[in-house]
Write a structure and sequence with these properties.
5 helices; two-stranded antiparallel ribbon; mainly alpha
Length: about 110
Amino acid sequence: MQEGSTGPLVDLLLIFLAGYQLGKRGHTDVIPDGVCGLKGVAALQEFQADHDLQADGGFGPETRRYLTEAYALNFDVIAAGSRAATIFRQPDGSELMWPPRTPMVRDRALRER
């Protein structure tokens, strides 16, 4: 997740990270407003480092798996109930859309048949 990531799942992750920082430090730098800023990226990197994950600020499979196993925060299940797409900008500049197949993508695929 990089600066500029947006959507309801980004907001959920930012709420989680704010709570994590509050529990750890007694204060948080994160503002859960649905758009990730530099403080959100730094909070994710801090969380990753604290849990021996690759601290790159990316929202990859390793981080998602850890959040599911350790905190029961399953983004697959949560995304299934959301109609809005979330875009996680990754450290390498790529974008991960969640849920992976949005209605727009499915509609385009059906039209191309």
